[in-house]
Amino acid sequence: MGVNAKQIQKINYFSKVSEDLCSEIAKVVKQKKCSPKTTLLKEGEAGDTMLLIFQGQVEVSKNMMVKTSSGFTMSTKSIIRLETTDPSPANKPITEPTVSVVKAPAFGIGEFSLVLDNAKRTSHVTAMTDINYGIIKLEDFSNIVDKHPSIGGSVYFEVAKSAVNNLATATQDISNLTQAFFFALAK
Amino acid sequence: MDTNKKAEIKFSSIDDIDKKIHANQVLYDQLHQSLVDEIVSKDDEAQKKEKSRKSDVSKTRNFLLKFSDYYQSNELFRYALWGFVAVFFSTTILTIIEYPLFSGSVKDDVGDGFMFGGDEPNWVDTFFHTFWWAVVTFTTVGYGDVSPETHLGKLLTIIIMILNLGIVTMLTGAVSSVLVAARLKGDDTLDETKFYGHLIIAGWNPAVQSALRLIEANEDSASVVILINETEEEIIKRAVSGFDRLDITHLSENFTQEGVLKKAFIEECGTFMIVPDESGLLPNEKPDEDKTVLTALTAKSILEDIQVVAYILDEEYISHLHRANVNEIVFPDEHIPHMLAKHVTDPGVPQLFDELITQEKQDKGIQVVSIPKGLVGLTHNKVSAYYKFKNKWLLVGYAIKKAGFSLEEQMGESGSPIIRDMIKEQLDGAGIKLSSDEHVIVEINPDDEYIIDGKHKALVLR
To answer: Out of 3.30.70.260, 1.10.287.1080, 3.30.420.10, 1.10.287.70, which CATH number does the structure's domain B75-182 have?
Structure first.
């Protein structure tokens, strides 16, 4: 069973692309399945593919230094969970979420790879349920964009939008952390 | 030539200013008087409204509230009240049911004595007679001079006597428990109802007496004071005699202990003051200031919001007190270099300080007064004019209660929740509080356009 244009269109980056062109994209997407606990992306690894999650729940996590009773250790801290709603996951997640779960019809992850050559993955992505996903290569995507430049505009606009939003949040985070830092130093 | 001209101009301009001032004086006064009037009337109105609203409802409400409080808190009162209700109730019932019987036996019993009804007993006599029977029954005395005779009367009496058994048992229990509790508590437990917003002074040295005298003079300040120190009762008694307004209690215990502070209702206090403790010291011994820091820590650990003022003699302890989150630190040595230097550089300034600080008369010196509501939101020059024209006070500046900085509030909903949670979690884990305490800052002689808000209090020179 291949990937169809409707599935592609559910992903927000491709929502503005016409159905005809989505089916062009669908042709180069390699469909895959995996079981829970599979690591889909690894932090720090270079990658030239973007993943399209069609069905299931994944957890995004990062390596962080945390303070525990025995001192400082590096540990993986979950940041967010993403869950598809159309269709919703086929089974229950293996662990209960400790962070907020963001829901959307389908997700694209690793979108930086559509912009940068060999972009480094910024966080871990782990499957929490059975996952139905697709892989799209930067090379294939570039070829389509060359053929149909109109795709590029709308997709890159969406990618840019999400990047700008992330940047705004990150700026706030830095300001919060700076305040907390001064607060802690003042004590 | 030129200089003459200039001088002339100067003269004329000063004259001019004088003239202008004179011409405007009336207008100026009116302007300010109207400002004062407006604000005063606004405040008066608000107060009147509040008062009239209060007085209507408050009397009966207050009484009911007090009554229900007393009922809730006093076991003895509760059972006695129920006992009374039960006696009264059974009297009424029996009077109605056994009227002929009780009314007949009144005459047998009383004989030629006084009766409300004259020769024949009326209902008052009968009711009282039944009441007598009810009390005799309830107290389990049971003279037996009167007793119900009909079946219905006896049946009711059985019910009453069984009910009565319960009430009497509980009343007896309450009486004994009150007695036992009173013995257990001893004499040193303070009456809880009196202590709210009071001043606690931990430690004793001669400065305390002078401080109390100044507090006594200001009628707006708290009047209930608890002294905690282990100085001899005699010395304290002598020191605190002669205070009229202040209600001073002495707890002769170790104030570094949490239990002792709680006994002084520290959670409810307005200000907790710690002074270098000279209790039991020889004349050349120095007070142990570790105790001050320890007490500050204890107080803050009981309740973070307690307003703690610490008086310290040794500079070394200041950083410790800061770390204990003490609200205000009084360190007199800090002022000495300034005083000495000012005698050289600005003679008169130290004398001014002396005059201002040591002024003990109630209506003189620098004081903090609340700003009338009508003035909130206005600029400094208007507020200043208000005090000048209304009370002839000089407005020196403002004492501003600054809310503590709260990191949580500051962060709000900004950034990603995961980072906010992590900050909270990590700071919490490190024992760092996410907010700092409320404290008072002073703003002296601000710009005319400086806006006064509700957190300001006026520092006036009277």
So the answer is: 1.10.287.70
